[in-house]
Amino acid sequence: MTALGGVEMGALAARTRALAVLRVRSRALAVALLPAAAAVILLVGGSTGHLVGGGWDVLRWVVSVLALFVLLAAAGVALVVARAEPAMTPTVTVPEESAPELYRMVRDLADRLDVPAPSAIALTPDCDSWLEDRTHPLHGPPPVDRDDDGLPGLGDPARRRSAVAAPVLVIGSPFLWWMRVGELRAVLAPVVAGTGPSAHPDIAAARRFIRGLDAAVAVASAGRRDPLSRAACAGLGWVSRLLLRSCRRHATEMERGVAAAAAERAQAVDYGLRIVAQEQVGLAYAGWDRLLTRVALPAWRLGRWPSRLDVGVVAALTELSRRDRLAEGFASRLGERPACDLLEEPGVVDEAVSLLAARLFHGGPAETRPDWSPVGWEDYPEEVVDRSWRTDAARLHRVLDTLGVRRTGAGTAPGTDGPTLARVLDHLTTPDPAPALAPPTATDADPAPGTHPATGTTPADTHAPHADHATPHPAYADHDAPAGDGDDLAGVARRGARDASGDGQASHGDHAASHGDHTTPLPPRADHHGTPADDEDDDDLAGTTARGAALAAGLSAQLAREEARERPVGAGVPSSPPGPGAGTGPDAALWDDRALPLLPLQPPRTGREILTAHITAMVCCAAMDTVGAAPGLDWLDGPALLLDGARTADLAPSVLSLVETGDPGPLRAWMTELGIRPEKPVRLV
């Protein structure tokens, strides 16, 4: 079969399925008109003297009332389906004056494919590209079709006029910065080819109908307070879901036909280069994911958003190419012209996309403010890495204060009560079993009865405040979560897990508080798989020591409280409309930003992960303050500890040994090798 024949077959299949979707709409209209038709027959029969009598009169009234009710209900459903705003993808619009070469390339590509050019171009902070219809009245006036010859007919290369506006081309921003111009054109070829089948009136009408049903389901799911509105929403939702189920199979096959037709048509354009370009798509996705989760996420948690994420993905992928022997050939591509050169001001566009990525993946505010400011890559180690480590270290010592742990550790100079790494190590070290010896004679040189000979702490140090450290240190005190006297470590861990669960839910909207009930306990929060998080926390902390479990629970609770206080900064804040000039702001009118983040990057961290991260941060702070280490940025792994300009060995195995078994030996050996002194106080935020 020829390529043209493949296009025809795919487009014909898509049109056939589109007609099937429209037949579902026609059947629904027929069902809605059926009672009215019956009422007309009964009324005409009565007026002509054929259907007379008391029974027929009652039937006429019943059917007429039923017909009126059904017509009103059908009109309401049709109005909602037609007027409800369909869900739109958050993007950054790129006007033609800010990227004339990019628009020229896309139009040339459309001419080669013999399809209408997209009406506009937008960028998304994701590794994907697609066409999106934005012709709904609530999205503003439809874009003007620049082609005077009209849009192509299905199966006919000649052009004809059509009232269907071309869709918007959405391009993943990492593609523009990582790919070369030829690679981007090859990747966009099958996407742009989809404007041909999309322009057919039947396919466009079927898509509008399906999007309207989907929007109507969203309206019905919003819910109302009064009983009448709830009943109307329930009816609207039932009808919309019924129609969607009836259209599902036809809609799926229609989209497959459109994709097949577009792929067949695009084979004639840069086919050999498309194979190489697809390899770059997979590489870009891997680099983008690691950049977001390991580099951008730590900054977002501190209220800073990297303003050049797309530049960062180029650095990350270049580093990956250097490390991976399979990617050695990709480095030679860097001498070719990058696709971002098609933009007039790539820095402005990158900043707008970076801010949108922070909103989508983290839920940050829509604009810069004192607690939400941009950060450049050159300032990232000092502004993000150093600050993140010292913030975590300060939180670690605040929780130790609430657990009643003494501030001085083994080897600490007398009178030193500052935050030290020795304090953390001594607390988490599993005490050796006491030998069965005769009670020693109490002297001034001997430790107090019941005191551990190595650490100088008593079993009560883990939960009972002592006279010498009953008051938390003012520099890192926490008065929000005092530890109750007499609680054992397991009880502290369980209480901390419950506090973390409750605070975590409060940050996302407490359903009990919304009903004015502050005494009803909250149900356990669930992870993205639906498993109660309390059970997961218990399982996760089961492999740690009792002291580690208590400390992890306290840190989780403290983090949950902080997130609950900071969560409102990004919720319910409308995005700013695109400004004049470049016009590269987020499309605020196209999406609802009241439920952010829309695409969370990772599930909530477990207690073990939180404890490990905080101990690692404390070790890094000690390294910076005692041996002159410096914070650094690894493009693939995120924050890194540098000593003499080189990255230090991985800390994770040594820290895990301390967390899971209470054995500080590997970590102490690691610190001894680098010369780190755990007894020295460190600077905190």
Percent of residues in helices:
40-55%
Shape: flat
Strand content: 5-15%
Strand order of the largest sheet: 1-2-6-3
User: Kindly, what is the distance between the CA atoms of the first and last residues, rounded to a whole number of angstroms?
Assistant: 69 Å
- Which segments are poorly predicted (pLDDT under 50) over 5 or more consecutive residues? 141-163, 432-534, 568-583
Features:
3-stranded antiparallel beta sheet; alpha+beta; 685 residues; 11 strands; 6% strand; 4-stranded mixed beta sheet
Can you offer a commentary on this structure?
By secondary structure, the protein is α+β, with helices and mostly antiparallel strands. The chain contains 20 helices and 11 strands. Strand 4 and strand 5 (156-160) form a beta hairpin. Helix 1 runs antiparallel to helix 2, helix 1 crosses helix 7 (201-222) and helix 17 crosses helix 18 (607-626).
How are the SSEs placed, and which strands pair?
Layout: H1 3-47, H2 54-83, E1 92-94, H3 100-113, E2 120-124, E3 129-132, E4 151-153, E5 156-160, E6 168-172, H4 173-178, H5 181-192, H6 195-198, H7 201-222, H8 227-266, H9 271-301, E7 304-306, H10 309-323, H11 346-361, E8 373-375, H12 380-402, H13 421-428, H14 489-506, H15 511-514, H16 533-541, H17 546-566, H18 607-626, E9 630-634, E10 638-643, E11 646-647, H19 652-661, H20 665-674
Parallel strand pairs: 2-6, 7-8
Antiparallel strand pairs: 1-2, 3-6, 4-5, 9-10, 10-11
Helix pairs in contact: 1-2, 1-7, 1-8, 2-7, 3-5, 5-8, 5-9, 7-8, 9-10, 12-17, 12-18, 14-16, 14-17, 17-18, 18-19, 19-20
